[in-house]
Amino acid sequence: MDQGQDDLYAVDASGVNLRKLCGGGITNTMESCVAAAILPGNPDAVIIGDSKLGADSPSLRFTRKELDNFFAAYQAGEI
């Protein structure tokens, strides 16, 4: 069952350590990275932040379904 976005932001995630995930590159000299973690208490939700900012990074929260839809639209050339 998907939670609404408001519910995802209601969860206290202040103690969550985001894991740096890298891959691909913007240029030959710069690698693209994000920081991500599973939302506590909801294995179907993900927290994503800016790896360069560390603990000071603002974060976004998405359900796995939302991320799947985003990637499908990207692969289809819709975005």
Summarize the structure in words:
With 79 residues, this protein is of the alpha+beta class. The protein has one domain (5-75). 23% of the residues lie in helices and 41% in strands. Strands 1-2-3-4 form a four-stranded antiparallel beta sheet. The mean pLDDT is 85.
How would you write the strand order of the largest sheet? 1-2-3-4
Stretches where pLDDT is under 50 for at least 5 consecutive residues are: none
User: Which oligomeric form is depicted?
Assistant: single chain
For the largest beta-sheet, the strand count, sense and barrel status come to:
4 strands, antiparallel
Order of helices and strands: HEEEEH
DSSP strand tally: 4
Number of domains: 1
Helix content: 10-25%
Sheet-strand content, in percent, reads 35-45%
Radius of gyration, in Å, reads 14 Å
